[in-house]
Amino acid sequence: MRKRPRFKSRTPPPMSQLLFISFLFVMISTFLSIWYIDAKIKPVLMDIAKRKTTEFATRAINSAVKFAENYTFDQIARTITDDNGNVSIVGWDSSVVNKINRAATDRVEEFFRSMNRGEPPNYENPLSEPKVYGDTVDELVEKDPTVVEIPIGQATGNAILANLGPKIPVNLELIGSVRTDIKEEREEFGINNVFVTLYVLVEADVQIIVPFTTEVTTVKTRIMIDKHLVMGQVPNFYGGGNKGPSIAVPKKDLQDLP
User: InterPro entries in the record, alphabetically (predicted)?
Assistant: First the structure.
C-alpha cells in the first residue's frame, strides 16, 4: 500500500513578530483616528464649544455686573440747564463712571476665578442672586459650568446621534483682562427731546480648551443701567426736518390764551 504523505505542522510565528504586528496595527489605527478627529470632528467640536462658552460667560458677566442696575440716571448724569431751566448739556460724572467700571471689572474677574476654583464668588458687598436664569451663584458652582461635556455624537451633525457616544470635556478659562465701559444710546423723541439709555459694556477674553486644540474667543455683552427722557426747549420755529413748511408760534398769542 502507498503511504499517505505526512504534512509537517507549521510552527507559530515568534512572539516578537506578533507583538510588532499588533503594535503596528495600534499605531496605524491611532494615527487614522487622530487624523479623522482633527479633520472632521475638531472644527464642529470647537464650534459647539464656542457656543457653550459664550452662553456661560454671558451668564457669568450678567451675574457679576448685576449691581449696576442699582444706579440711576440721575446718579451718573450731569445736566447743565440754561437760565430758563431747560437742559442744554448732558454729561457724565467721571467719578461714578470710573467706580462702576472698576467694580464691574473686579467682579467679573473674581467671578471667573472663583468658578474655575469651584468656589462661590466672594465680594465685599454680596451680589443679589441672578434670578433671570433660574440659578443662584451657588447652584452654578455646584454644576461646575466651566467644564462642559459634549457628546461626540453632536459632531456628526445628525440629530439621531447627537446624544450618543462618549462625552468630551470642554474647559474654559478667563485669560487676559476684562474690559468695561459705560455706553449710551440716544434716540430723538418729539421736538428737542432725547431718550437716553445707559449700558455697561463688558468684554472678556475666554480660552476654550478641548482635546487636541485650544482657542481664545472674546465674549461681549451689555447690561442696561437705566434709561431717561431728557426734555429740551421747544423752539419758536419748527420746520419739521425740512419736510414741510416752517411753523411759527408767537409767544404773545400763547400767553393770551385763557
Answer: Sporulation_prot_YunB
